[in-house]
Each structure stands twice: as structure tokens, then as C-alpha cells.
Specification:
Helix content: 55-70%
Structural class: mainly alpha
Largest sheet: 2 strands, antiparallel
Order of helices and strands: HEEHH
Length: about 70
């Protein structure tokens, strides 16, 4: 299930590939970017590791969640 991942990757493409840093110009199919710059850097790393794979991202975030639950 792709909730907003496609839009996040569109934001990252504009930021990383096109060099757009003006937040008013970074937009995707579900609207403009609404998170701080750290979000763009984190999802740039996710895109670098996984590409545009929704399933891969779900597995990555599930793994992070399970580690966090285990630690707590």
C-alpha cells in the first residue's frame, strides 16, 4: 500500500536530481513538501539504498520499528 511514498520520492527527485532547494517549488502529486529539510535528507538516503521500491521501504521501516519495540 503506497500512502505517500510516491510523493516523497517526487520531492526527493526535485531536491537531489534537480537541485531545487526552494520549498515553494518542491511539490508532488499529493501536494507540496511539508516537512523540515531533514526529511529530504533521510528519504534521499532511503532512495539511494532502495530506489523507488515501496515494498523495500515498508520492510525497512518495519525493521526500524521492530528494533525500536525490542529496545523499549
Amino acid at each position: 500500500l503506497d500512502v505517500d511514498f510516491t510523493t516523497y520520492m517526487q520531492h526527493v527527485r526535485l531536491f537531489r536530481d534537480k537541485g531545487v532547494t526552494d520549498y515553494s517549488l518542491i511539490t508532488g502529486t499529493r501536494g507540496p513538501v511539508q516537512y523540515p529539510a531533514g526529511y529530504l535528507y533521510c528519504f534521499s538516503l532511503v532512495r539511494w539504498i532502495l530506489g523507488d521500491s515501496v515494498i523495500g521501504a515498508q520492510v525497512l521501516f518495519l525493521s526500524i520499528y521492530m528494533v525500536q519495540v525490542y529496545l523499549v
